Amino acid sequence: MTSFDDAEYKVAEYLLQIKAVKLQPDKPFTWASGIKSPIYCDNRKTLSYPKIRNYIRQHFVEVINEHFVKPDVIAGVATGGIAIGALVAQELGLPFIYVRSEAKKHGLTNMIEGEVAAGQTVVVIEDLISTGGSSLKAVEALREKGCTVKGMVAIFTYGFEQATQNFKKAKCNVKTLTNYDTLVKAAAERGYIDEKNIKSLQEWRANPETWGEALVK
Predict the structure, then answer these.
(1) What is the domain extent for residue 88?
(2) Who wins on pLDDT, 2 or 130?
(3) Most buried by CB count within 10 Å: which residue of 3, 27, 50, 96?
(4) Residue 1's pLDDT is what?
């Protein structure tokens, strides 16, 4: 078994390798919120690469076994956490459910899909954490169902202070397979970005809402 730090770096390398994460400080992306960002993340791409998909699945399993021993159920957050969550549940031999972003407006109007009962313990699987808002909606839905959420595991986090505070306020323990700092380090060492870009990437993470203002002249 590799050390956690080595695994963090390896996951970051894989995300860069398949362009699940793209870093473009000089040609930033525009998020749906309007924020200008030097990074674009689509972890669903990992599912198309069996070697990488399996590595990520096994790393999830190791983190769960170390920090959230023997949950009753694995829950994926729709939509990015569904496929990888199902793979993790299969590997652990556990039931799987997923949590919608909002309740269906027809039929049974479910927000939680699958079988879970009050009193059961759950680990939540997510692909990406930004502010934590949508992820914590899933946690709240499970708690309202009467479940005990042991914690959440995600592939990647931007490491925003807002997310740290949101998870702390919600009293939800969160672990990630890799993170923004490790990704930037791997990108610099593997030649995906120049050293001069590092400062810009650090400035964005500190102030994502205002970082793009300097680009508008």
Answers:
(1) 4-215
(2) 130
(3) 96
(4) 39
Q: What number of other Cβ atoms are within 10 A of residue 25's Cβ?
A: 20
Of 103, 105, 96, 112, nearest to 146 by C-alpha is 112
Output the 3-class SS for the chain: CCCHHHHHHHHHHHHHHCCCEEECCCCCEECCCCCEECEEECHHHHHHCHHHHHHHHHHHHHHHHHHCCCCCEEEEECCCCHHHHHHHHHHHCCCEEEECCCCCCCCCCCCEECCCCCCCEEEEEEEEECCCHHHHHHHHHHHHCCCEEEEEEEEEECCCHHHHHHHHHCCCCEEEEEEHHHHHHHHHHCCCCCHHHHHHHHHHHHCHHHHHHHHCC
CATH number of the structural domain spanning residue 157: 3.40.50.2020
The β-bridge partners of 178 are 156
| 0.90 surpassed by pTM | yes
